[in-house]
Write a structure and sequence with these properties.
The chain is mainly alpha-helical and 387 residues long. Among the domains are: 200-251, no CATH class; 289-387, Serine Threonine Protein Phosphatase 5, Tetratricopeptide repeat, CATH 1.25.40. The chain contains 20 helices and no strands. The N and C termini lie far apart (116 Å).
Length: 387
């Protein structure tokens, strides 16, 4: 019996000695730069009950894999593709086992370097369009930060970008939301969420995201413009008008905003129930289009749309004229309608100058030249259409 106990004790001692030797050998190979050999010896050591409970074992393992991951040997990195993960895992375990905190500063410094390396690796993978790899690297950076009670908002945000680029809209929105919750404090994040919601045909979701952003950034011009755009798409004209007016307050020299405001007034004129109201909104629309053109004399849309405005206004007058029985009164009425109609000529001509290939503009000019009896210009427009 004594012999058996002695043999068992001797075997245990030899096993412990062997594992201690593994740790020492791993360290020595690491110092010699033979990292693959160091791995051979450190892996059995972490599985042993005694050496696997030692902070030193895990710290050495973390250092070995850190040197592999952050070194220049491409073949070695290929041999150990998860070196960064194992290094992080090891240093976190070392800190956990370091009850007295003797190596806390050293381990924390190494983890900080690994966090930076993870973020950089994520960025490199993102640039290379390896979005799954980017997401994995950003997640590692987040994990390290979380271990110290922090949040790596850059990693969270970049992860959202990666999800978006790989086509995972739901994943991207969730990660953008995580970034907001983590304190990412930039207005564009709400625009990104809204854009993804819009692409997913969730227009209400897009509007809500922009409104949420405007609650935090009420004076942000891009959010105001996006809100206007989404509200218009949702046919919520009254709300859109308020956004446009607010946008003009922030950016009074924005020709696009004035043009959009004019189009909203134009719609109000079309929807008006009585002539006085209609005339009021047509006048406001005309003024807004002209203001847009003062600010940007090369803005095609405003030239074309004010031409359409005059067409619509004239059409209303022609309809009135058709109800008149008296020739004298009809002639007077038609003169008013004609005068309004031909006001569109210089605007459509300018639109044609800016976009000579635009078919709708050419068609409008053909009608106007026919009306004014300008046969040469009519023939020129007709030729452009191949007629």
């Amino acid at each position: 019996m004594k012999i058996a106990v002695l043999i068992g004790t001797l075997a245990l001692s030899m096993s412990l000695s062997a594992q201690n030797a593994n740790v020492v050998n791993a360290y020595n190979y690491m110092k010699d730069g033979q990292y693959a050999k160091a791995v051979e010896f450190i892996e059995p050591a972490i599985l042993d009950a005694k050496t696997g409970a030692s902070e030193k074992t895990w710290r050495y393992r973390g250092e070995i894999y850190r040197l592999i991951a952050m070194g220049e040997d491409a073949a070695l990195k290929t041999q150990f593709p998860d070196a960064l993960d194992k290094s992080v895992e090891s240093y976190l375990k070392a800190n956990e086992l370091d009850a007295k905190g003797n190596y806390k500063i050293e381990n924390t410094r190494s983890l900080g370097a690994l966090q930076i390396a993870s973020l950089n690796a994520g960025n490199e993978a993102f640039t290379a369009k390896s979005f799954d790899a980017a997401i994995a690297n950003y997640a590692r950076s987040e994990r390290i930060a979380k271990a110290f009670g922090q949040v790596d908002t850059n990693a969270v945000f970049n992860s959202a970008l990666a999800y978006e680029q790989k086509g995972d809209a739901a994943g991207a929105i969730a990660r953008y939301r995580d970034a907001i919750a983590a304190g990412y404090n930039k207005p564009e994040i709400y625009r990104y969420i809204a854009s993804l919601e819009r692409k997913g045909d969730n227009l209400d979701g897009a509007i809500n995201a922009i409104k949420e952003g405007r609650t935090r950034f009420p004076d942000e011009k891009d959010l105001i413009l996006d809100e206007m755009s989404y509200l218009l798409a949702a046919d919520r004209s009254a709300e859109a008008e308020e956004s446009v007016k607010l946008g003009i307050q922030k950016d009074p020299n924005n020709a696009v905003l004035w043009s959009v405001l004019a189009s909203l007034y134009d719609k109000k004129a079309t929807d008006a129930k009585d002539e006085a109201d209609m005339t009021n909104w047509y006048t406001k629309a005309e003024e807004a289009y002209k203001r847009s053109l003062e600010l940007d004399p090369k803005f095609f849309d405003s030239y074309f749309n004010i031409g359409v405005l005059y067409n619509n206004r004239a059409a209303y007058e022609y309809e009135k004229c058709n109800k008149i029985k008296s020739d004298t009164e009809y002639t007077k009425c038609k003169k008013v309608a004609d005068d309004i109609y031909v006001k569109a000529v210089p605007y459509f001509e300018k639109a044609h100058e800016l976009k000579a290939e635009d078919v709708q503009t050419i068609q409008q000019l053909m009608k106007l030249y026919a009306k004014t009896g300008d046969q040469d210009k009519y023939a020129a427009m007709k030729a452009l259409l191949g007629n």
